[in-house]
Amino acid sequence: MVSLSSFYPARFRKDLTVIPVVRLHGTIMAGGNQFRQNLNIATVAPLLARAFADKKAPAVAIMVNSPGGSPVQSRLIYKRIRDLAAEKNKKVLIFVEDVAASGGYMIACAGDEIIADPSSVVGSIGVISAGFGFTGLIGKIGVERRVYTAGENKSVLDPFQPENPDDIARLKDLQLDIHKVFIDLVKDSRGARLKDDPDLFTGRFWTGIRGKELGLVDELGDLRSALRARYGDKVKMRLITAQRGLFGRRVPGVSTSLATDVLAGIGEAGLNAVEERALWARYGL
Questions:
Q1: In this structure, are residues 98 and 121 in contact, taking their beta carbons and an 8 Å threshold?
Q2: What ranges do the domains of the chain cover?
Q3: For residue 269, what pLDDT band results from cuts at 50, 70 and 90?
Q4: I need a surface site. Which of 51, 64, 237, 267 has the fewest CB within 10 A?
Q5: What whole-number distance in Å separates Cα of residue 242 and Cα of residue 219?
Q6: Do the beta carbons of residue 106 and residue 67 sit within 8 Å?
Q7: pLDDT, average across residues 169-177
Q8: What is the pLDDT of residues 149-161, one digit of tens each?
Q9: How far apart are CA 156 and CA 154, in angstroms?
Q10: In this structure, what DSSP letter does residue 151 have?
Q11: What is the pLDDT of residue 169?
């Protein structure tokens, strides 16, 4: 005979353990618009707040699928997860999908445990800056570059001027500072689980299998199997999704010119798509 309790909503059933699940997918960049949503503290914070607000849930599961991006936004998301975990007394389980690399791995370090697919890509603990040089191009097409500054360092790394060794040295110093922040965060998070490997903090990345051997990952597996192993066969996963407007669409911000915003949004989305494609391509995805 079927018990009437089986028809109750999950939150009213005592025989079920409900685990909120947040899926963080995409590149990590500040900003965004109605055409493209990036991962950043502004877009992620509401989802995290709703997930950790579940008083009965013993843990929050976070699925990470990101090739990285902004180190600042990555650390802000990491810190928000850890702050909420301490405030709400929740365990955090991170599940790696295709990739958790660079800033994506920084976010993954917010987990008390990191579970990855054997074929996931993890690591890339490093800092990269990339761009293009157009010094030869503007000469060929007859363009004269005119730059006026107040401050001798305001035009450093100008892509239309030859590279300056002093500018490159300054950039390297900045990268080393950011890299140290990243390394310290990983060491604080993973602690004694990390293996002593000379390539660990060089920017290299590995599969989930090798990541487990290096201590970057705790376990190989998937969301459903891992949750059932921890909380029993009756565990229920509740996906936390972004809230929508009245007609099921995201509510746009107030604008003085809709046409201008649409055109700007399309252009920005196109440039972001190119940058995003390049980030994913680094890991063969």
A1: yes
A2: 4-127+185-281
A3: low
A4: 267
A5: 29
A6: no
A7: 81
A8: 776 766 666 676 7
A9: 6
A10: S
A11: 80
Position 253 confidence tier, pLDDT thresholds 50, 70, 90: very low
Query: What is the 8-class DSSP label of residue 11?
Result: G
pLDDT at 84 over 50: yes
Across 205-230, b (16+ Cβ under 10 Å) vs e yields bbbbebbbebbbbbebbebeebbeee
Radius of gyration of the chain (CA): 22
Whether residue 126 contacts residue 102, with contact meaning beta carbons closer than 8 Å, is answered with yes
Give the three-class secondary structure for 33: strand
- Token representation of residue 172: 């390297």
Q: In the chain, how long is the greatest CA-to-CA distance? A: 85
**CA separation for the pair 280, 283 (Å, rounded):** 6
Query: Exposure pattern of 158-169 as b/e (b: 16+ CB <10 Å)?
Result: beebeeeeeeee
Question: Between the CA atoms of 185, 186, 188 and 192, what dihedral angle is there, to the nearest 10 degrees?
Answer: -170
Give residue-wise pLDDT tens across range 209-218: 999 999 999 9
Q: Which helix (H) or strand (E) holds 205?
A: strand 205-207
Please state, in angstroms and as integers, the Cα–Cα distance from residue 37 to each residue in 33, 53, 96, 241, 285, following that order: 6, 24, 20, 13, 19
- Percent of the chain topping pLDDT 70: 71
Can you tell me the distance from the alpha carbon of 264 to that of 232, in angstroms, rounded to the nearest whole number? 50
- Please report which helix (H) or strand (E) contains residue 138, including its range: helix 135-140
The CATH code belonging to domain 4-127+185-281 is 3.90.226.10
CA dist 180 and 260 (Å) reads 41
Q: Are 90 and 58 in contact (CB under 8 A)?
A: yes
